[in-house]
């Protein structure tokens, strides 16, 4: 069995209409969300053997703030293919991982992360967490999947169970949608 963590970047700043999408930083709510999620990820207790991330500024800032808040720095493997990738590309990145680490966390973007959950977790009515993802996989959301595989190269559709899902607003209602 393998573990896959999916961590969507925190809320980004749309204040500069001239900024390239890749270069958008986090906004104030995003910085708070990244920090609270970093503490939650630490407290959840999974030891991630490898962290893969999109190099987009909002992902880099999310990881930096999450690590700082958790007090646990991590080595990040930056992979440009994760930037705005489809679920197919994300699965390919996972299949290529050498050394078969037991637990990989991927930091990236929607709709790719959300679609990866839909591809890996069967839609058979038995997963209330999958149903929650169908409603929304918001910024700074953190999900953990158990994969029924021995090697990352064996990753295939419907091989996973979604066992953990937390949104920033679950930990602090002020980080929920603005009404």
Explain this structure to me?
With 179 residues, this protein is of the alpha/beta class. Helices cover 34% and strands 18% of the residues. The chain contains six helices and six strands. The chain has a six-stranded mixed beta sheet with strand order 3-2-4-1-5-6, with helices on both faces. Strand 2, helix 2 and strand 3 form a beta-alpha-beta unit. Helix 1 crosses helix 2. The longest helix has 17 residues. It is globular. The relative contact order is 0.22. The mean pLDDT is 96.
Summarize it.
With 179 residues, this protein is α/β, with parallel strands linked by helices.
Strand arrangement, largest sheet?
Answer: 3-2-4-1-5-6
Taken in chain order, the helices and strands follow as: EHEHEHEHHEEH
Report the total helices.
6
Derived from helix and strand composition plus strand pairing, the structural class reads: alpha/beta
What is the strand content?
Answer: 15-25%
Principal-axis shape equals globular
* Low confidence ranges: none
Mean pLDDT: 96
Helical content stands at: 25-40%
Keywords:
about 180 residues; alpha/beta; six-stranded mixed sheet; 6 helices; 6 strands; about 35% helix; about 20% strand
Q: How is the secondary structure organized here?
A:
Layout (H helix, E strand, L loop, with lengths): L1 E7 L19 H17 L5 E4 L3 H14 L5 E3 L8 H9 L7 E6 L3 H9 L7 H8 L6 E6 L12 E7 L1 H4 L8
Parallel strand pairs: 1-4, 2-3, 2-4
Antiparallel strand pairs: 1-5, 5-6
Helix pairs in contact: 1-2, 3-4
């Amino acid at each position: 069995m393998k573990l896959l963590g999916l961590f969507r970047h925190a809320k980004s700043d749309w204040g500069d209409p001239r900024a390239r999408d890749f270069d958008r930083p986090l906004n104030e709510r995003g910085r708070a969300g990244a920090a609270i999620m970093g503490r939650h990820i630490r407290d959840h207790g999974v030891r991630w053997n490898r962290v893969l991330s999109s190099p987009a500024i909002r992902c880099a800032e999310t990881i930096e703030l999450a690590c700082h808040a958790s007090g646990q720095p991590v080595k990040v493997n930056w992979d440009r293919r994760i930037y705005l990738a489809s679920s197919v590309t994300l699965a390919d990145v996972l299949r290529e991982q050498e050394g078969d680490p037991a637990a990989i966390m991927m930091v990236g973007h929607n709709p790719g992360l959300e679609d990866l959950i839909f591809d890996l977790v069967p839609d058979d009515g038995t997963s209330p967490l999958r149903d929650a993802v169908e409603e929304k996989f918001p910024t700074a959301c953190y999900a953990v999947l158990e994969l029924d595989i021995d090697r990352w190269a064996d990753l295939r559709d419907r091989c996973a169970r979604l066992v953990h899902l937390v949104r920033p607003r679950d930990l602090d209602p002020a980080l929920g949608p603005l009404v």
